[in-house]
């Protein structure tokens, strides 16, 4: 099957894509852009064509819905230029960097703290 072929999609997915494409064209998008966005939307909602095997087959519908919601929240936050929570951003730092920040904030007991404790202490200060 060639790249871009829609043979593996269900009739329902094809109807959804047509409906979404028509909606985009009504909004003034070019037919090519409308088609691309329509299929991207169908892929995001359903995980792509109904392929045997493929990724995501082990997830329950509830897990897929949860993943979509969290992904959508992160996308909106990044679109509006909002950083992740301080705890999430601190968790990506090394322990040495966290120790420097703790020292700068005069956090007591920092020398005996584990990384997750430093993250908690620094997130409560920020």
TrEMBL record:
Domain of life: Bacteria
Stretches with biased composition (Basic and acidic residues): 1-36
Compositionally biased spans, kind Gly residues: 46-56
Region (Disordered) residue spans: 1-94
UniProt-recorded name of the protein: Termination factor Rho
């Amino acid at each position: 099957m060639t790249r871009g072929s829609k043979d593996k999609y269900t009739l329902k997915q094809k109807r959804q894509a047509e409906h979404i494409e028509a909606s985009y064209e009504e909004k003034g998008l070019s037919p090519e852009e409308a088609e691309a966005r329509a299929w991207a939307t169908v892929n995001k909602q359903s995980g792509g064509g109904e392929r045997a095997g493929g990724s995501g087959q082990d997830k329950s519908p509830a897990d897929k819905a949860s993943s979509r919601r969290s992904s959508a929240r992160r996308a909106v936050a990044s679109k509006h230029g909002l950083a992740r929570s301080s705890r999430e951003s601190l968790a990506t730092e090394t322990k040495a960097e966290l120790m420097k920040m703790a020292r700068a904030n005069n956090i007591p007991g920092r020398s005996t703290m584990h990384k997750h404790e430093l993250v908690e202490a620094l997130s409560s200060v920020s």
